[in-house]
Amino acid sequence: MLELDEAINRRASVRYFKPKEVEDEKILELVKAAIRAPTASGLENWLFVVFRSGDAKEKLYELMAKGMEAYYSAVGISGEKLEKLRRRMYEEGMYRAPVYIAVFIDRNVRFLKGSEYDDLEYLWSVESAAMAIQNLMLKAVELGLGTVYIGVTNMNGIEDEVRKLAGLGDSYSLVGVIPVGYPKGDVKPRKRKKSAEDVMRFV
Ligand SMILES: Cc1cc2nc3c(=O)[nH]c(=O)nc-3n(C[C@H](O)[C@H](O)[C@H](O)COP(=O)(O)O)c2cc1C
Asked: Which among 7, 40, 95, 178 has most CB atoms closer than 10 A?
């Protein structure tokens, strides 16, 4: 078992993975850690869809690639940098993982029933799922696995495709896609631009 501090400080986004499969027991352990997160109003309205084989996984990868390109275009980067991204993805295998866990929330599961609470409950559900994802990521460190949070699959037109690929109805919203696998190469935690003192205030 890892000390919590070690897991927190060793976690870093991993974008390149070995082709080695991830054991089913480890995937289950990740989700068991995830659902220990706080969940607003005790809703537990999260769903972890594990993509690990065949066509659906390939289609999800293509959607991630589409999302990354849309993101880079929105940032306004040069054609040269876009080419570099494509090379990294299609030639060097960036984001190619043996497993992807797509995390959804079911908006039909409600505690506060009035429509005036729609936005608030949506926000709380996303926040709860994000906390679950962090648990999953820290557990992954302990299990020798690497993860990265993919948010670009929420870009316009892409999220719906991911939801359909997961076989889910309209009430499900995507929170994030998490590639999971054994890291290729060393995992080096990235420096923060700001210190704890920079981002805190005592009142
Ligand atoms: C909500 C969210 C969305 C993210 N989306 C992406 C993404 O689409 N693609 C990607 O490569 N990294 C994504 N990241 C990872 C961040 O780029 C990364 O966490 C940040 O650069 C800090 O690096 P570190 O995780 O290694 O400390 C996302 C992170 C968060 C929290």
From this structure: 178
